[in-house]
Amino acid sequence: MVSNRVGPPVRGEDFFGRQHEQNQCWDLLERDHLLLLAPRRVGKTSLMERLKETATQHRCEATYMSSADIEDEAAFVQRLCDSAAELSIWESVGQGLSGSFVARTLKRVQKVGIGVGSVELTPQAKENWSALGERLARTLDQHEGRWLFLVDEIPVFVLTLLRLDLSGERARRFLTWFRSLRQRSDVQGRLRWLLAGSIGLDTVTARLGLGDTINDLHIYHLGAFSHKTADHFLVELAKTHSLSFAEPVRARILERVGWPIPFYLQLVFSELRGLCHDIQEEPTVTSVDRVFEDLLKPAKKGYFDYWRQRLSEELGRPDAGLAQSLLNAVAVDATGCSRDSLRQNLAKKVRPAAARDEKLRFLLDTLESDGYLVEEGGRFFFRSPLLREFWVRRVLP
């Protein structure tokens, strides 16, 4: 039974589909560390949670951590230790850590299963965060078994370091250290890393000129549901909530959504379910269109406005403004926009021509990989018709 959940990651029976993606991830993790790239709301965190839930079926034990709220490098290592404390071998790992300077710098190490808050660092330990992280990774790699760290929102943490040091040197040191950590901890091949974020780590490192710090990661792209899977998902949601979803109704939803990511499907279903409850009628094509009109009203802009806001977070100035200018140009025409037209859009903003072409290439690559745009037949379109409609109504000047 698949529940209608809008927003939070889904777990257990609420996780739908993605079996092929799970199989691919587990196959790649046999030999590589992964960088999971996915536009926001595609279901990245839900997939990571699913990998954690099913790890034992693949002779592995996994732990998940988010980096979104971490303030500095020492806190990052603290979170790594807290995550490791959820593993069944934590007591043994703690003994391994105690065999070095770590014993003098850890204020307290609690027993296995305690989880968050299990390790408390002294000021000296915080100064030696890099050595502590390396010791933890090496100790895990030396234990029998296979261990997987699922690290979410790592790009958000890198951007935090960038705000602390605008030169980018602090972010470079951390990313270089983290790459070295992955390599040093992989002697026995027992420890694997899967990194992800709602902002692309590849985009952030490219912006900072730090692409070399993630070149050890195998890049895996997570996309939307197939049309068949999306239709089946709507059928299952309808069963769970005792709604009659005729094929024309489902077809209209998929047509209007255009890009069937789980969040949009859950959102439209929730709105349609509420409407049908209010008017005491079964869903129809007309009610589907009414729901889409309601979603595009100012009161519901919070469902989509993050697409505009994240440009500043990911790209910074002036690139965020240039990216929005390109998106505005694409949004104006439902038939899309050519590369030449977009190059002209940047003509007054970026000079000379060589720099303009390089900037256009970077921005279009970013907007495509982040789910804003797609290129078809030499023209660029919004990947999501629903997002384009929002952009036209709520973003265009």
Commentary on this structure:
The chain is an alpha/beta fold. The protein has three domains: 18-221, Rossmann fold, CATH 3.40.50; 227-295; 306-394, Winged helix-like DNA-binding domain superfamily/Winged helix DNA-binding domain (Arc Repressor Mutant, subunit A), CATH 1.10.10.10. The chain has helices at residues 19-29, 44-53, 73-84, 90-97, 102-105, 123-127, 129-141, 154-164, 169-184, 201-208, 227-240, 247-257, 262-279, 285-295, 306-315, 319-332, 339-346, 353-369, 385-394, and strands spanning 33-37, 61-66, 106-109, 119-121, 147-152, 191-197, 217-221, 337-338, 373-376, 379-382. The radius of gyration is 23 Å and the shape is globular. The protein starts with 18 loop residues before the first helix and ends with a helix.
Layout of secondary structure:
Blueprint: H1 19-29, E1 33-37, H2 44-53, E2 61-66, H3 73-84, H4 90-97, H5 102-105, E3 106-109, E4 119-121, H6 123-127, H7 129-141, E5 147-152, H8 154-164, H9 169-184, E6 191-197, H10 201-208, E7 217-221, H11 227-240, H12 247-257, H13 262-279, H14 285-295, H15 306-315, H16 319-332, E8 337-338, H17 339-346, H18 353-369, E9 373-376, E10 379-382, H19 385-394
Parallel strand pairs: 1-6, 1-7, 2-5, 5-6
Antiparallel strand pairs: 3-4, 8-10, 9-10
Task: Describe the structure using short key phrases.
397 residues; alpha/beta; Rossmann fold; Arc Repressor Mutant, subunit A; 3 domains; 5-stranded parallel beta sheet; 3-stranded antiparallel beta sheet; 19 helices; 10 strands
